[in-house]
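Long-time lurker. I teach an intro course on protein structure, and each term I like to show students one example going from raw sequence to a predicted 3D structure in token notation. This year I'd like something fresh instead of my usual example. Would anyone be willing to generate the tokens for the chain below so I can use it in lecture? Attribution to the forum is fine with me.
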Amino acid sequence: MSTRAHLSSTPASLWWALASFLGLAKLAVFVLDSNPQFVLGDSMSYLTTAMLGWIPPDRSFVYGFLVYNVTTRARSLSSLVAVQTCAGIVTALVTALILVRFFRAPFFIAAAMAVAVAIEPQQLLYERFVMTESVSTAFFAVFLLLVLKYLHSRKMWVLIAVQVAGVVLIAFRLTYVPLVAATTLIGPFMAYLPVRNRVQLAVHLLMSVSLFVGLHTAYKYWNGYLSKLPAAYLYADGYFLIATVSPLVTPADTDVPELVPVLSRPLAYASGPNQIISRKAELYLAEGLVARLKEALKDDYQVNVEAKRIAYRVIRRDPFGCIRLAVQTYLLFYSREYMSESMRQEAGMRELEPGQLKILSNYHLDARGLPFMKSLTRQYYLASWPFFLLLLHTPVALLLAAALVRPGKRRLLWFLVLITGLQVATVQMLEVEPSTRYLHPVTVPFVIAIGVCATRLFRSHVPSGDYVE
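-- Reply from a regular --
Happy to contribute to a lecture. Here you go:
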């Protein structure tokens, strides 16, 4: 039975029943926990964009525009929670569709995996937050669906759709850029393995790269136009990079005379035995490395450019030192004490300042008690640290799934291994601290791996002509 025939053999009524069940489950959780929530820096940036049209230098402005369009009439963030809840349903349904369409999972297994995605701790939590997570993960699931369809069909229109979905994805969350860039190059090669038609492969590769360059250049020019700065994805990515590698920075890593004295001074925070957990302070605090660079050059745009150049030099000069920092970041995920505090911060458990309360009052919201409210989704999330250790090892789960399926499906799983491994590695290599939030999209491939393994187990115990490949 072909994958298309297998999909069409699933009655539409079952899909409608699954969508209805997910909707009712989400509604039940919404009734029990409907308050909007906030992570202070991120959420306030998005709300400022929504209210004033301000373009943040370090975050998505597109999400701020979405918040404006969703909330402008009612001036209520409950509208945003509802939209993000619907995005969670989309993520769950697309995950089930991937399992049925490409891995020929029985519908009941795909439905169970959809429910697992829908009730995943961070999914429920961030549907309530003024954050990009819920919407961007829905687009990520659609992106995976399109890429897998391209690998299966090799159709040009699907390749074009992949690139369009990719630029929409990075417009909401820039951490997806490495993943989308890798897909641009890897996708055509994996679609044509083993290579029998080099001309067709070259045409698809050229189209993929051209679309990537064209669409992403357009996005950068749009950002530059709105920010009144040269075209770029962000104007603070250098700050994050230099803070990440700050323990390895030396004066030799810059050729700007004004910055040599700055880099010659000992770091204020990330120079002691706790350097791996102090890099965030070098990014945000007044005596940190980024603040010192800003004080020396007096031009935020130029500081970001130079910070990026310094960070790239450090990476080239001391790659093993960067790997050491990444390994130390990875090991922090196993520290229950550290992760407990980190997860409290990710759950928005910090006192709101008067200015932030004033912003939220524009949405008819008295938010003084929200950060420490023991809500259902927050308590569920805070109790889920062991689950995030599993998510961290999603590439291993995908490798196991690849070992269990028949050869015809392994190419799809190998692709998922590559891009999921890249996403997990990005969490370790490019962030100043371990964060469960950056693992949120990995839930989709993790559940796909579980669904594939469950399908294999089911078929080995329940032989049926309906499931013969």
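Some talking points for your students: Residues 237-332 form one domain. DSSP finds 24 helices and no strands in the chain.
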